[in-house]
Amino acid sequence: MTDDEDIRRAATAIRNGDLVVYPTETVYGLAADALSEDAVKRVFDAKRRARDKPVSLAVPDVDAALELVRATDREERFMREFLPGPVTVLCAKTDEVPDALTGGRDRVGVRVPDNEVALVLLREVAPITSTSANVSGRPSATATADLDPEIRDAAAVVLDGGETGQGTGGTGSTVVNVETGEIHRRGSNADAVADWLADETDDSQPQ
User: Fold this and answer.
1) pLDDT tens-digit map of 26-39
2) Residues 196, 82: contact at Cβ < 8 Å?
3) Helix, strand or coil, per DSSP, at residue 53
4) Does residue 207 form part of some domain?
5) Could you tell me if 46 and 28 are in contact, meaning their C-beta atoms sit under 8 angstroms apart?
6) Nearest residue to 27 (alpha-carbon basis) of 185, 194, 184
7) Domain span at residue 54?
């Protein structure tokens, strides 16, 4: 299992432009410096992911997220309600966030994972990429033993947080555009997200 020295080694690797596997509350993720175009490209290469498919970023808390996105009041309310948690929020990015991360799109997915190992890592180094640690098209890993050999070989450090996905069914996060009220991918907590969006819409209607 992961200890403080492992976290320090992982943080140093990320600062050096290398890749790190880390646990979240859903599945294992693949981390790199999310603001480094070269590091982001290494993530795409390791996953064999098409460059036009965006990758999200992870931060330790909502305040850190607000430094990287242009969030509306509604988006901030949503983030403070659901983060940390298994939800990815699509927000307008600042210029600091590279286009390589978002596939050229003007929105970036924001994650604050509800996993102590991930949060300790993020307090050391952030933002990092938030994408499943698997070769594209293959199943996500909920244990380090299930990692694709290519991903393990590409990672400088693998942080073992034990079995992930407890209570989430091992599914990925729910991806939501709060401004449009659209859920792009239903994952853990999707029903609660849908309820919040519906309630907020109702509250905004004139009485």
Assistant:
1) 999 999 999 999 99
2) yes
3) coil
4) no
5) no
6) 185
7) 4-202
